Amino acid sequence: MSVYFVPWNTSNNLLKETERLYDAAGTFDCINEGDLVAVKLHVGELGNPYHVQPIFVHEVVRKIREAGGKPFLTDSNTYYFAQRNNAVDHMNTAQRNGFGTAPFIIADGLKSENYRTVKTKGILSEIEVSGAIAEADAMIVISHCKGHELSGFGGAIKNLGMGCTSRAGKLRQHRTVGLEIDASKCIGCGKCKATCPMGIPEIIEGKAQNTSPLCMRCPMCIEACPTNAIDFVDKPNLSKALASAALGVLSTFKRGKVSYVSFAKDISRYCDCLSNPGEIMMNDIGIFASDSSVSVDAAFLTMADYQVFNEESHVDCMLQVQEAKTLGIEGTLKPAITTV
User: Fold this and answer.
1) Residue 1 has pLDDT above 80, yes or no
2) Does residue 251 sit in the same domain as residue 300?
3) Among 1, 38, 54, 315, which residue's beta carbon has the most beta carbons within 10 A?
4) Same domain as 325, residue 287
C-alpha cells in the first residue's frame, strides 16, 4: 500500500500542501454521505506543546464535511491520573488546547464505562474498544510521531491500539509487561510508593513489594528507585499488545473505512500524554497519508533515524509494525513513499 508525503517546509503554505496530500492519497474516499466519522486524535496533555496543531485538525474536519460526512473529534480517557482521566477534564483540556471546530465526544464515556469487548489475535485474545469508536461508520486517524518510553515510538498503530481502547483495554495492554523488584537491592526507602500516583507499592518488612493488579507498568517507580532495584520484565510485549489491540479496533470497521494522517513534526523524546515531553530528538520530517497503519508507520520509520528511540527505550520501534503485519493488518513494511 502506498504512502503519500509532503515535507515539512514552512516556505510553503502547509495547509495547501496537506490538501494536495489528501487528494493524492484519497484520504477521504473512506467516507460516504451521512457517515458518522470519528476523527481520532490526541489533544495533548495540558501543557504539552507538541501535539498536532489544531489548524490541521480543523482542515480535516472541513474536508470530511465536504465529503458528506458528519465529523466528531474523539479520544479515550487515560488510565493514569492526569488532565484527561475522565470526560469532563478531558473535554476541558481539548478546549484549552484549541480543538473546537467539531463536537468532541469522549470515546469511552464519563469514567471509561462505554466500551465493546471484541476478539483479537496475538498476545491478546480480546480487547475493550471504546464505544464511540466501535459505533462510528468511518475514522480518520491523526497521529503525532514521537518517542515513547515503553514502545519505542508512538504513531498510527499506537493511536489505534492504546488510543481507541478504554481504561480496561489500556491496562490489559500494559499488563503484558512484567515488573520485578530485586529484594537484594531494595533498601525499603519508600520512594517508589511516594512517587506512584496510585500509591501501589507496599513496604513490607523493609522491602518494596508490588502485587497489585492495578499497576499499569508506568516507569515512575523505576525512575524514583535510588538503588535500581525495580525493572521491567518482557518490555517488548507492549509493542505486541499495541498491534493486537489495533487489530481488534479495526475489526469494528468495514474494510476501507479507516484512513491515516501522521505528522512527523516536533518529534519529542516522550509521548503527548506528558505535560513535559522532553527534548526534540530529530529534525521535522513532514506529513504522511495512507490507508494503512502498517504502511504509514513504516514510512515514518524509514525516513527517521529511529535508532535514537531504540537506544532510549531499549525496544525496537519496528516491532509493533512487524507484529501488526504478522497479525494480518494490511500494509507493507517497505512502502513506496510518493512525495506530492
Assistant:
1) no
2) yes
3) 38
4) yes
Q: What is the phi/psi pair of residue 168, to 5°?
A: -60, -40
Q: Is 136 found in the same domain as 254?
A: yes
18 and 83 fall within a common domain: yes
Model confidence pLDDT, tens digit, residues 209-229: 999 999 999 999 999 999 999
Give the predicted TM-score (pTM) of the model: 0.96
In this predicted structure, what is the pLDDT of residue 81? 83
Q: What is the CATH number of the domain that holds 190?
A: 3.30.70.20
Q: Where are the alpha helices (DSSP H) in 107-236?
A: 131-135, 156-161, 167-174, 191-195, 220-224
C-alpha torsion angle, residues 38, 111, 220, 280 (rounded to 10): 30
Query: 3-state class of 248 per DSSP?
Result: helix
Are residues 195 and 279 both part of a single domain?
A: no
Residue 202's domain comprises 178-233
